[in-house]
Amino acid sequence: QVQVVESGGKLVLPGGSLRLSCAASGGTFSRYQMGWFRQGEGKEREFVASISWSGASTHYANSVKGRFTISRDAAAENTVYLQMNSLQPEDTAVYYCAADPWGGAQPRAVTTYDYWGQGTQVTVSS
Fold first, then answer.
1. How far is CA 65 from CA 7, 16, 32, 80, 117, in A?
2. Which residue in 71, 88, 120, 121 has the most C-beta neighbors within 10 A?
3. Cβ–Cβ contacts within 10 Å for residue 27, how many?
């Protein structure tokens, strides 16, 4: 059974940095497109970043471009990271990792992804 588990969320000061991890099991994740999404309180789930199975192609939401970086662990093919720098209060949300086995053409769409983690809370506050 495919499982996706996020970790690394916590309370951080504005301007701080945080790295989220996503570990997957039960599938050939080295061939999966992976994505990060977030959902703030009272808001819809929104796209943050995605990475192709090879790592050659990445996409970012405009709101995080230049601050966040998505990457795949070359050694651990089932692990994806989201490095978040210059965090701001508006980045506060539950962050979800998602896996797409089919290489969908719309990496920014929630519906592209078949498997989701339970989420990890990121709170940016002084």
1. 22, 16, 22, 18, 23
2. 120
3. 17
Judged by phi (left if over 0) then psi (alpha if -120 to 50, else beta), residue 25 lies in beta
Cα 48 from Cα 59, distance rounded (Å): 8
107 CB-near residues (< 8 Å, 6+ apart) = 33, 35, 47, 50, 52, 59, 100
Q: Is the pLDDT of residue 126 over 90?
A: yes
58's enclosing H/E stretch is: strand 58-60
Which tens digit of pLDDT belongs to each residue from 42-73? 999 999 999 999 889 999 999 999 999 999 98
Query: Can you give the length of the chain in residues?
Result: 126
Q: What share of the chain is helix, strand, coil (3-state, %, to 5)?
A: 5, 45, 50
